[in-house]
Amino acid sequence: MSVKAFKLISAVERETLMGDKNYINIECIECCGKNLYIGTNDCFIYHFLLDEKISTAGKITFAATKQLHKYLGLKKPVSELKAASALTRLLVLCDNTITLVNMMNLEPVPTGARIKGAVTFTLNENPVSGDPFCVEVCIISVKRRTIQMFMVFEDRVQIVKEVFTPEQPCAVAVDGYYLCLALTTQYIILNYNTGASQDLFPYCSDEKRPIVKRIGRQEFLLAGPGGLGMFATVDGISQRAPVHWSENVIGAALCFPYVVALDDEFITVHSMLDQQQKQTLPFKEGRILQDFEGKVIVATNKGVYILVPLPLEKQIQDLLASHRVEEALVLAKGARRNIPKEKFQV
Length: 346
Fold this sequence. Notes:
The protein is mostly beta strands.
């Protein structure tokens, strides 16, 4: 039984990004407020302003206005972008080096501050330093079996900690002092302050792409064995039942109360409240699915789309209209904190 939880709306058309240059592919995206950044395989960063428009009939559309683009001067793809809005900096990973650039003009910081030797990186959304003018960055290093923690300021970087892992890490998410790591054969939780580690469950990174995603304070979402989306806390326990994904999920995102997953052919939507699959959207050639401040964005090699959630009140009304009272009650109670009080009472 399906629920219409999301609508898929095009945000950046292929022509807007690449014109007639067919060789250009999207490698990564970042969204911060209305600012959308796209990194491509030919070493360019594009900056768009995203405007959401709602017609009188309630139809939502997005207009992406190109601000500027910048060539990074290498023959390598831009593999990751992360915005640090408090510093007005964009962290750009290209050719194993993280460069700091200005979010508005895409110019590198004058000091040339950079982090070398990074395979992939993530930001700590629950930072431990308490300094508002600094972001904490965790990298998987090109050195074997090594994770490094950095503090990144407006124009300088400082290494804080280097941690060695029992096997080669291939994906990481951070919460406070806790690292949730996908290693070659298993997922683990590692406290980089105390060195204490906790095994979660086995996983073969040679067979499929691991997914490690921080979804809230001290809680992560992982792609588990048998096509399961598993939840794990920093204590190594699961407080929620798993969701059943397909075997070949390539990306996952959280938009409460839903977990959204992307595979080769579909976007699937599962409820965290009753673990049921609520919606399936056909989506071919998808390669990126991420959530940014509650905005869920999917991308193919050539275009960017936004998954717009329908208001929870509307979803509840639709469930009641199709006599699915139990599901409507579960959604209303579970999503209570996301519904205005007077509407919840009704």
